Amino acid sequence: MKLDTWRAGRDLLADLSANEIEFLESVASEVTFSKGAVIFEEDDVADTFYILQEGTVGLELTTPGKPPVVIQTLGSGDLLGVSWALPPYSWTWRARSLTDTTLIAFDAVKVRERCEVDFRLAHQILRLIAREAIRRLTGARVRLLDLYHHEAR
Amino acid sequence: MTTEATPISVRSAEEMLPQPFRVTEIRRETPDTMTLALEPTSGPGIEYAPGQFTMVYVFGVGEVPISIAGGQEGKLMHTVRAVGAVTRAICALGPGDIVGIRGPYGTSWPITEADGRDLVIAAGGIGLAPLRSTVQYALNHRDRFGYVSLIYGTRSPGELLYEDELREWRSRFEIEVEVTVDRAADGWYGDVGLVTNLLPRIFYDPEKTTAMVCGPEIMMKVVARELGSRRVGFDDVYVSLERNMKCAIGFCGHCQYGPDFVCKDGPVVPYSQVRNRMRVAEV
Protein backbone atom coordinates (compact mmCIF):
# COMPACT_ATOMS: atom_id res chain seq x y z
CA MET A 1 0.00 0.00 0.00
CA LYS A 2 1.68 3.25 -1.11
CA LEU A 3 0.85 6.32 0.95
CA ASP A 4 3.15 8.89 -0.67
CA THR A 5 0.83 9.69 -3.58
CA TRP A 6 -2.17 9.78 -1.33
CA ARG A 7 -0.70 12.18 1.22
CA ALA A 8 0.35 14.79 -1.34
CA GLY A 9 -1.62 17.96 -0.68
CA ARG A 10 -3.20 16.59 2.49
CA ASP A 11 -2.39 17.64 6.02
CA LEU A 12 -3.09 14.41 7.85
CA LEU A 13 0.22 12.58 7.42
CA ALA A 14 2.30 15.61 6.43
CA ASP A 15 4.60 15.55 9.48
CA LEU A 16 5.64 11.90 9.18
CA SER A 17 9.14 11.02 7.96
CA ALA A 18 9.86 8.72 5.03
CA ASN A 19 10.73 5.87 7.43
CA GLU A 20 7.53 6.36 9.36
CA ILE A 21 5.47 6.39 6.18
CA GLU A 22 7.27 3.24 5.05
CA PHE A 23 6.34 1.52 8.33
CA LEU A 24 2.69 2.60 8.04
CA GLU A 25 2.61 1.34 4.47
CA SER A 26 3.76 -2.07 5.72
CA VAL A 27 0.73 -2.35 8.02
CA ALA A 28 -1.80 -0.79 5.64
CA SER A 29 -4.22 -2.24 3.15
CA GLU A 30 -7.05 -0.87 1.05
CA VAL A 31 -10.54 -1.93 2.04
CA THR A 32 -13.96 -1.12 0.65
CA PHE A 33 -17.38 -1.04 2.27
CA SER A 34 -20.70 -0.85 0.52
CA LYS A 35 -23.31 1.71 1.46
CA GLY A 36 -24.91 0.84 4.79
CA ALA A 37 -22.18 -1.52 5.98
CA VAL A 38 -20.99 -1.23 9.58
CA ILE A 39 -17.22 -0.62 9.66
CA PHE A 40 -16.95 -0.99 13.41
CA GLU A 41 -19.41 -1.31 16.24
CA GLU A 42 -19.60 0.59 19.52
CA ASP A 43 -17.63 -1.20 22.31
CA ASP A 44 -15.91 -3.60 19.89
CA VAL A 45 -12.15 -4.05 20.13
CA ALA A 46 -10.36 -1.18 18.37
CA ASP A 47 -7.62 -3.02 16.51
CA THR A 48 -7.76 -1.15 13.19
CA PHE A 49 -7.90 2.51 12.24
CA TYR A 50 -8.62 4.05 8.88
CA ILE A 51 -8.10 6.97 6.57
CA LEU A 52 -10.95 7.65 4.17
CA GLN A 53 -10.01 7.77 0.54
CA GLU A 54 -13.47 8.06 -0.97
CA GLY A 55 -17.00 8.18 0.33
CA THR A 56 -18.68 9.22 3.55
CA VAL A 57 -18.76 7.51 6.93
CA GLY A 58 -21.18 8.37 9.72
CA LEU A 59 -20.31 8.05 13.40
CA GLU A 60 -23.51 6.87 15.03
CA LEU A 61 -24.91 6.78 18.51
CA THR A 62 -27.21 3.84 19.01
CA THR A 63 -30.09 3.83 21.45
CA PRO A 64 -32.46 0.89 22.06
CA GLY A 65 -35.77 1.25 20.28
CA LYS A 66 -34.71 4.27 18.26
CA PRO A 67 -32.99 4.71 14.94
CA PRO A 68 -29.27 5.47 15.23
CA VAL A 69 -28.33 9.16 15.36
CA VAL A 70 -25.47 10.31 13.14
CA ILE A 71 -23.42 12.66 15.30
CA GLN A 72 -20.72 13.40 12.76
CA THR A 73 -19.75 12.44 9.25
CA LEU A 74 -16.25 11.96 7.92
CA GLY A 75 -15.14 12.27 4.32
CA SER A 76 -12.18 11.95 2.03
CA GLY A 77 -8.89 12.62 3.83
CA ASP A 78 -10.33 12.22 7.33
CA LEU A 79 -9.01 9.93 10.05
CA LEU A 80 -11.53 7.32 11.14
CA GLY A 81 -10.81 5.93 14.58
CA VAL A 82 -9.06 7.47 17.56
CA SER A 83 -9.94 5.07 20.39
CA TRP A 84 -7.43 2.47 19.16
CA ALA A 85 -4.55 4.57 20.52
CA LEU A 86 -5.43 4.55 24.22
CA PRO A 87 -6.74 1.90 26.65
CA PRO A 88 -9.23 0.27 26.80
CA TYR A 89 -8.84 0.09 22.98
CA SER A 90 -12.56 -0.11 22.28
CA TRP A 91 -14.72 1.97 19.96
CA THR A 92 -16.88 4.74 21.41
CA TRP A 93 -19.22 5.03 18.41
CA ARG A 94 -20.49 2.87 15.61
CA ALA A 95 -19.03 3.73 12.20
CA ARG A 96 -21.28 3.09 9.23
CA SER A 97 -20.54 3.57 5.59
CA LEU A 98 -23.11 6.09 4.30
CA THR A 99 -21.99 5.66 0.70
CA ASP A 100 -19.79 3.09 -0.98
CA THR A 101 -16.43 3.85 0.61
CA THR A 102 -12.78 3.10 0.05
CA LEU A 103 -10.50 3.34 3.06
CA ILE A 104 -6.90 2.68 3.99
CA ALA A 105 -6.97 0.30 6.96
CA PHE A 106 -4.02 0.24 9.38
CA ASP A 107 -3.24 -2.61 11.78
CA ALA A 108 -3.55 -0.69 15.05
CA VAL A 109 -2.02 -3.49 17.14
CA LYS A 110 1.20 -3.38 15.11
CA VAL A 111 1.27 0.42 15.25
CA ARG A 112 0.86 0.35 19.06
CA GLU A 113 3.64 -2.25 19.38
CA ARG A 114 5.96 -0.16 17.22
CA CYS A 115 5.16 2.97 19.23
CA GLU A 116 6.38 1.21 22.40
CA VAL A 117 9.92 1.16 20.96
CA ASP A 118 9.87 4.02 18.45
CA PHE A 119 9.16 7.13 20.50
CA ARG A 120 9.38 9.53 17.57
CA LEU A 121 6.69 7.59 15.75
CA ALA A 122 4.62 7.48 18.96
CA HIS A 123 5.02 11.24 19.30
CA GLN A 124 3.99 11.86 15.68
CA ILE A 125 0.98 9.54 15.92
CA LEU A 126 -0.19 11.13 19.16
CA ARG A 127 0.25 14.61 17.66
CA LEU A 128 -1.83 13.58 14.67
CA ILE A 129 -4.55 12.15 16.90
CA ALA A 130 -4.49 15.15 19.27
CA ARG A 131 -4.82 17.57 16.34
CA GLU A 132 -7.83 15.70 14.98
CA ALA A 133 -9.35 15.34 18.46
CA ILE A 134 -8.98 19.09 19.10
CA ARG A 135 -10.63 19.91 15.78
CA ARG A 136 -13.54 17.60 16.55
CA LEU A 137 -13.83 18.87 20.13
CA THR A 138 -13.93 22.46 18.84
CA GLY A 139 -16.59 21.48 16.34
CA ALA A 140 -18.66 19.72 19.00
CA ARG A 141 -18.38 22.69 21.39
CA VAL A 142 -19.40 25.19 18.73
CA ARG A 143 -22.36 23.01 17.73
CA LEU A 144 -23.42 22.93 21.39
CA LEU A 145 -23.84 26.71 21.21
CA ASP A 146 -26.60 26.24 18.61
CA LEU A 147 -25.24 29.32 16.82
CA TYR A 148 -27.69 29.46 13.95
CA HIS A 149 -30.83 29.41 16.09
CA HIS A 150 -31.41 33.14 16.66
CA GLU A 151 -29.22 34.56 13.96
CA ALA A 152 -30.45 37.30 11.62
CA ARG A 153 -28.83 39.09 8.70
CA MET B 1 -12.35 76.69 -11.45
CA THR B 2 -13.76 76.03 -8.03
CA THR B 3 -16.23 73.40 -7.00
CA GLU B 4 -18.68 73.73 -4.18
CA ALA B 5 -19.05 70.78 -1.87
CA THR B 6 -22.58 69.68 -1.09
CA PRO B 7 -23.33 70.64 2.51
CA ILE B 8 -23.18 67.58 4.70
CA SER B 9 -26.69 68.11 6.06
CA VAL B 10 -28.14 68.10 2.52
CA ARG B 11 -26.14 65.04 1.54
CA SER B 12 -27.22 63.12 4.60
CA ALA B 13 -30.85 64.09 4.10
CA GLU B 14 -30.74 62.63 0.58
CA GLU B 15 -29.07 59.50 1.82
CA MET B 16 -31.77 59.03 4.44
CA LEU B 17 -34.57 59.14 1.88
CA PRO B 18 -35.93 55.68 1.00
CA GLN B 19 -36.92 54.73 -2.54
CA PRO B 20 -40.21 52.85 -2.88
CA PHE B 21 -39.82 49.25 -4.02
CA ARG B 22 -42.63 46.83 -4.77
CA VAL B 23 -42.58 43.21 -3.63
CA THR B 24 -42.97 41.14 -6.79
CA GLU B 25 -42.48 37.69 -5.33
CA ILE B 26 -42.07 36.13 -1.92
CA ARG B 27 -40.79 32.61 -1.30
CA ARG B 28 -40.60 30.70 1.94
CA GLU B 29 -37.10 29.31 2.53
CA THR B 30 -37.62 27.86 6.02
CA PRO B 31 -40.43 28.17 8.58
CA ASP B 32 -39.15 31.62 9.66
CA THR B 33 -37.17 32.83 6.64
CA MET B 34 -38.50 34.37 3.45
CA THR B 35 -36.89 35.54 0.24
CA LEU B 36 -38.39 38.65 -1.36
CA ALA B 37 -37.93 39.89 -4.90
CA LEU B 38 -38.24 43.68 -5.11
CA GLU B 39 -38.43 46.12 -8.00
CA PRO B 40 -38.39 49.91 -7.94
CA THR B 41 -41.79 51.53 -8.45
CA SER B 42 -39.99 54.09 -10.63
CA GLY B 43 -36.48 55.05 -11.56
CA PRO B 44 -33.38 52.97 -12.11
CA GLY B 45 -33.43 51.03 -8.84
CA ILE B 46 -30.26 50.01 -7.03
CA GLU B 47 -26.99 48.66 -8.37
CA TYR B 48 -24.90 46.90 -5.75
CA ALA B 49 -21.75 44.87 -5.24
CA PRO B 50 -21.93 41.42 -3.59
CA GLY B 51 -21.73 41.75 0.19
CA GLN B 52 -23.39 45.17 0.48
CA PHE B 53 -26.64 45.79 2.33
CA THR B 54 -29.66 48.06 2.16
CA MET B 55 -31.90 49.58 4.81
CA VAL B 56 -35.40 48.17 4.40
CA TYR B 57 -38.21 50.32 5.78
CA VAL B 58 -41.63 48.86 6.50
CA PHE B 59 -43.86 51.89 6.71
CA GLY B 60 -45.20 52.45 10.19
CA VAL B 61 -43.08 49.68 11.70
CA GLY B 62 -39.42 50.54 11.27
CA GLU B 63 -36.22 50.10 9.31
CA VAL B 64 -33.60 47.33 9.42
CA PRO B 65 -30.35 46.57 7.57
CA ILE B 66 -30.64 43.53 5.31
CA SER B 67 -27.86 41.99 3.24
CA ILE B 68 -28.42 41.92 -0.50
CA ALA B 69 -28.84 38.34 -1.65
CA GLY B 70 -29.20 39.09 -5.35
CA GLY B 71 -31.05 40.97 -8.05
CA GLN B 72 -30.10 42.60 -11.35
CA GLU B 73 -30.91 45.69 -13.38
CA GLY B 74 -31.89 47.72 -10.35
CA LYS B 75 -34.01 44.98 -8.78
CA LEU B 76 -33.14 43.41 -5.45
CA MET B 77 -33.49 40.12 -3.68
CA HIS B 78 -33.45 39.97 0.11
CA THR B 79 -33.60 36.93 2.36
CA VAL B 80 -35.01 37.83 5.76
CA ARG B 81 -35.39 35.86 8.94
CA ALA B 82 -38.26 36.87 11.22
CA VAL B 83 -36.53 37.60 14.52
CA GLY B 84 -37.92 41.03 15.52
CA ALA B 85 -40.83 43.38 14.89
CA VAL B 86 -39.54 44.77 11.59
CA THR B 87 -38.28 41.49 10.15
CA ARG B 88 -41.56 39.82 11.14
CA ALA B 89 -43.38 42.58 9.26
CA ILE B 90 -41.15 42.06 6.21
CA CYS B 91 -41.83 38.33 6.24
CA ALA B 92 -45.58 39.04 6.38
CA LEU B 93 -45.48 41.13 3.17
CA GLY B 94 -47.06 39.88 0.01
CA PRO B 95 -46.75 40.59 -3.72
CA GLY B 96 -47.71 44.18 -4.50
CA ASP B 97 -46.78 45.56 -1.08
CA ILE B 98 -44.44 48.56 -1.01
CA VAL B 99 -41.36 49.01 1.17
CA GLY B 100 -38.79 51.79 1.36
CA ILE B 101 -35.21 50.96 0.43
CA ARG B 102 -32.05 52.99 1.08
CA GLY B 103 -28.66 51.98 -0.15
CA PRO B 104 -26.65 50.10 -1.14
CA TYR B 105 -24.26 50.59 1.74
CA GLY B 106 -21.01 49.20 3.01
CA THR B 107 -18.02 47.34 1.67
CA SER B 108 -18.27 44.32 -0.60
CA TRP B 109 -16.63 40.92 -0.98
CA PRO B 110 -13.29 41.25 -2.84
CA ILE B 111 -14.52 39.16 -5.74
CA THR B 112 -12.90 41.17 -8.52
CA GLU B 113 -9.62 41.44 -6.57
CA ALA B 114 -9.63 37.64 -6.31
CA ASP B 115 -9.09 37.18 -10.06
CA GLY B 116 -6.84 34.19 -10.70
CA ARG B 117 -7.09 32.90 -7.15
CA ASP B 118 -8.84 29.96 -5.51
CA LEU B 119 -12.06 30.88 -3.71
CA VAL B 120 -13.26 29.33 -0.48
CA ILE B 121 -16.76 30.57 0.28
CA ALA B 122 -17.88 29.51 3.76
CA ALA B 123 -21.40 30.20 4.96
CA GLY B 124 -23.22 29.43 8.17
CA GLY B 125 -27.01 29.58 8.55
CA ILE B 126 -28.55 32.68 7.02
CA GLY B 127 -24.98 33.85 6.27
CA LEU B 128 -25.42 32.21 2.88
CA ALA B 129 -27.65 35.13 1.82
CA PRO B 130 -24.86 37.77 1.62
CA LEU B 131 -22.67 35.23 -0.21
CA ARG B 132 -25.28 34.09 -2.73
CA SER B 133 -24.45 36.76 -5.30
CA THR B 134 -20.75 36.00 -4.86
CA VAL B 135 -21.36 32.36 -5.75
CA GLN B 136 -23.34 33.46 -8.78
CA TYR B 137 -20.59 35.87 -9.81
CA ALA B 138 -18.02 33.07 -9.56
CA LEU B 139 -20.23 30.79 -11.66
CA ASN B 140 -20.83 33.49 -14.25
CA HIS B 141 -17.08 34.27 -14.47
CA ARG B 142 -15.78 30.77 -13.83
CA ASP B 143 -12.67 31.14 -16.00
CA ARG B 144 -11.37 33.98 -13.81
CA PHE B 145 -10.77 31.74 -10.78
CA GLY B 146 -8.91 28.59 -9.84
CA TYR B 147 -10.71 26.13 -7.57
CA VAL B 148 -14.00 27.52 -6.27
CA SER B 149 -15.70 25.87 -3.30
CA LEU B 150 -18.78 26.66 -1.28
CA ILE B 151 -18.98 25.06 2.16
CA TYR B 152 -22.26 25.65 3.94
CA GLY B 153 -23.33 24.64 7.42
CA THR B 154 -26.67 25.08 9.05
CA ARG B 155 -28.64 23.88 12.04
CA SER B 156 -30.76 21.15 10.46
CA PRO B 157 -31.79 19.97 7.00
CA GLY B 158 -35.06 21.92 7.30
CA GLU B 159 -33.15 25.18 7.68
CA LEU B 160 -31.15 25.09 4.46
CA LEU B 161 -31.52 28.18 2.29
CA TYR B 162 -31.79 28.11 -1.50
CA GLU B 163 -32.11 24.31 -1.71
CA ASP B 164 -32.95 24.38 -5.43
CA GLU B 165 -29.99 26.62 -6.18
CA LEU B 166 -27.63 24.49 -4.10
CA ARG B 167 -28.67 21.50 -6.21
CA GLU B 168 -28.27 23.50 -9.41
CA TRP B 169 -24.84 24.88 -8.41
CA ARG B 170 -23.68 21.37 -7.54
CA SER B 171 -25.07 19.85 -10.73
CA ARG B 172 -23.07 22.27 -12.89
CA PHE B 173 -19.80 20.66 -11.66
CA GLU B 174 -18.07 24.02 -12.02
CA ILE B 175 -17.68 24.62 -8.33
CA GLU B 176 -17.53 22.28 -5.39
CA VAL B 177 -20.55 22.53 -3.09
CA GLU B 178 -20.43 20.82 0.30
CA VAL B 179 -23.25 21.09 2.84
CA THR B 180 -23.35 19.99 6.45
CA VAL B 181 -25.86 20.25 9.29
CA ASP B 182 -25.40 20.40 13.05
CA ARG B 183 -28.18 17.90 13.66
CA ALA B 184 -29.33 15.28 11.20
CA ALA B 185 -32.94 14.26 10.77
CA ASP B 186 -34.54 11.16 9.30
CA GLY B 187 -34.02 11.13 5.59
CA TRP B 188 -30.86 13.27 5.65
CA TYR B 189 -28.04 11.49 3.84
CA GLY B 190 -25.61 14.40 3.79
CA ASP B 191 -22.88 15.49 6.15
CA VAL B 192 -23.24 16.11 9.86
CA GLY B 193 -20.82 18.34 11.75
CA LEU B 194 -19.42 21.84 11.89
CA VAL B 195 -18.70 23.59 8.61
CA THR B 196 -14.94 23.41 9.32
CA ASN B 197 -15.17 19.62 8.90
CA LEU B 198 -15.65 20.25 5.21
CA LEU B 199 -12.34 22.08 4.74
CA PRO B 200 -10.24 18.91 4.29
CA ARG B 201 -12.58 17.82 1.48
CA ILE B 202 -12.13 20.79 -0.82
CA PHE B 203 -9.21 21.80 -2.99
CA TYR B 204 -7.43 25.13 -2.61
CA ASP B 205 -3.89 26.37 -2.65
CA PRO B 206 -3.39 28.22 0.66
CA GLU B 207 -0.85 30.54 -0.97
CA LYS B 208 -3.35 31.84 -3.51
CA THR B 209 -6.70 31.49 -1.78
CA THR B 210 -9.22 34.20 -0.98
CA ALA B 211 -11.75 33.07 1.61
CA MET B 212 -15.09 34.77 2.20
CA VAL B 213 -16.82 33.77 5.39
CA CYS B 214 -20.26 34.77 6.62
CA GLY B 215 -22.25 33.50 9.57
CA PRO B 216 -22.45 33.99 13.31
CA GLU B 217 -19.27 35.64 14.63
CA ILE B 218 -18.16 32.55 16.52
CA MET B 219 -18.54 30.49 13.36
CA MET B 220 -16.50 33.05 11.37
CA LYS B 221 -13.77 33.02 14.02
CA VAL B 222 -13.56 29.24 14.04
CA VAL B 223 -13.48 29.04 10.25
CA ALA B 224 -10.84 31.79 9.99
CA ARG B 225 -8.70 30.09 12.63
CA GLU B 226 -8.99 26.74 10.86
CA LEU B 227 -8.08 28.34 7.53
CA GLY B 228 -5.10 29.95 9.29
CA SER B 229 -3.97 26.57 10.60
CA ARG B 230 -4.14 25.39 6.99
CA ARG B 231 -1.78 28.24 6.00
CA VAL B 232 -4.31 30.66 4.47
CA GLY B 233 -3.21 34.18 5.49
CA PHE B 234 -5.62 36.18 7.67
CA ASP B 235 -5.30 39.08 5.19
CA ASP B 236 -6.89 36.78 2.61
CA VAL B 237 -9.79 35.75 4.82
CA TYR B 238 -12.76 38.16 4.68
CA VAL B 239 -15.63 38.16 7.14
CA SER B 240 -18.94 40.03 7.18
CA LEU B 241 -19.71 41.76 10.46
CA GLU B 242 -23.15 42.36 11.82
CA ARG B 243 -23.97 45.22 14.19
CA ASN B 244 -26.94 47.37 15.05
CA MET B 245 -26.94 49.67 12.03
CA LYS B 246 -29.38 52.58 12.14
CA CYS B 247 -28.36 55.43 9.83
CA ALA B 248 -26.11 53.27 7.58
CA ILE B 249 -24.03 56.31 6.60
CA GLY B 250 -21.62 56.56 9.52
CA PHE B 251 -23.38 59.35 11.45
CA CYS B 252 -25.25 57.83 14.34
CA GLY B 253 -22.56 55.56 15.78
CA HIS B 254 -24.90 52.70 16.65
CA CYS B 255 -22.75 50.23 14.74
CA GLN B 256 -19.39 51.43 16.06
CA TYR B 257 -16.99 48.52 16.39
CA GLY B 258 -13.71 49.72 17.86
CA PRO B 259 -12.44 52.44 15.51
CA ASP B 260 -14.79 51.43 12.69
CA PHE B 261 -18.40 51.99 11.82
CA VAL B 262 -19.62 48.68 10.46
CA CYS B 263 -22.08 50.42 8.12
CA LYS B 264 -19.39 52.25 6.15
CA ASP B 265 -16.05 50.59 7.06
CA GLY B 266 -17.73 47.17 6.86
CA PRO B 267 -19.60 44.94 6.84
CA VAL B 268 -16.97 43.05 4.82
CA VAL B 269 -13.48 43.34 6.31
CA PRO B 270 -10.30 41.27 6.30
CA TYR B 271 -10.20 39.00 9.33
CA SER B 272 -6.72 40.37 10.11
CA GLN B 273 -8.34 43.78 10.75
CA VAL B 274 -10.78 42.55 13.38
CA ARG B 275 -9.12 39.42 14.73
CA ASN B 276 -7.99 41.02 17.99
CA ARG B 277 -11.29 42.86 18.48
CA MET B 278 -13.22 39.61 18.13
CA ARG B 279 -11.67 38.50 21.41
CA VAL B 280 -12.88 41.54 23.36
CA ALA B 281 -16.29 41.11 24.97
CA GLU B 282 -16.84 44.86 25.46
CA VAL B 283 -16.38 45.88 21.81
Question: What would you say about this model in short?
Answer:
The complex is a heterodimer of chains A (153) and B (283). Chain A has 153 residues and is α+β, with helices and mostly antiparallel strands.
Model description:
The complex is a heterodimer of chains A (about 150) and B (about 280). Chain A is about 30% helix and about 25% strand. Chain A is an alpha+beta fold. In chain A, the strands form two sheets. Chain A has a four-stranded antiparallel β-sheet. In chain A, strands 2-7-4-5 form a four-stranded antiparallel β-sheet, with no helix packed on it. In chain A, helix 3 (about 110-115) crosses helix 4 (about 120-145). By secondary structure, chain B is α/β, with parallel strands linked by helices. Chain B has two domains: about 10-105, Translation factors (Elongation Factor Tu (Ef-tu), domain 3, Beta Barrel); about 120-240 and about 265-280, Rossmann fold (3-Layer(aba) Sandwich), CATH 3.40.50.80. Chain B is about 20% helix and about 30% strand. Chain B contains seven helices and 15 strands. Chain B has a seven-stranded mixed β-sheet with strand order 10-9-8-7-11-12-15, with helices on both faces. A six-stranded antiparallel barrel of chain B has the order 1-2-5-4-3-6. In chain B, strand 13 (about 255) and strand 14 (about 260) form a beta hairpin. The interface of A and B includes residues 10, 142, 145, 146 and 153 of A.
Main attributes of the structure:
heterodimer; A: 153 residues; alpha+beta; Jelly Rolls; 4-stranded antiparallel β-sheet; 4 helices; B: 283 residues; alpha/beta; Elongation Factor Tu (Ef-tu), domain 3; Rossmann fold; 2 domains; 7-stranded mixed β-sheet; 7 helices; globular
List the helices and strands and how they pair.
The complex is a heterodimer of chains A (153) and B (283).
Chain A: H1 4-7, H2 18-26, E1 28-33, E2 38-40, E3 48-54, E4 57-61, E5 69-74, E6 79-80, E7 94-97, E8 101-107, H3 108-117, H4 119-144
Antiparallel strand pairs in A: 1-8, 2-7, 3-6, 3-8, 4-5, 4-7
Chain B: H1 8-15, E1 19-30, E2 33-40, E3 53-58, E4 62-70, E5 76-81, H2 85-91, E6 98-105, E7 118-124, H3 129-140, E8 148-154, H4 163-171, E9 176-181, E10 191-192, E11 209-214, H5 217-229, E12 237-240, E13 256-257, E14 260-261, H6 262-265, E15 268-270, H7 271-274
Parallel strand pairs in B: 7-8, 7-11, 8-9, 9-10, 11-12
Antiparallel strand pairs in B: 1-2, 1-6, 2-5, 3-4, 3-6, 4-5, 12-15, 13-14
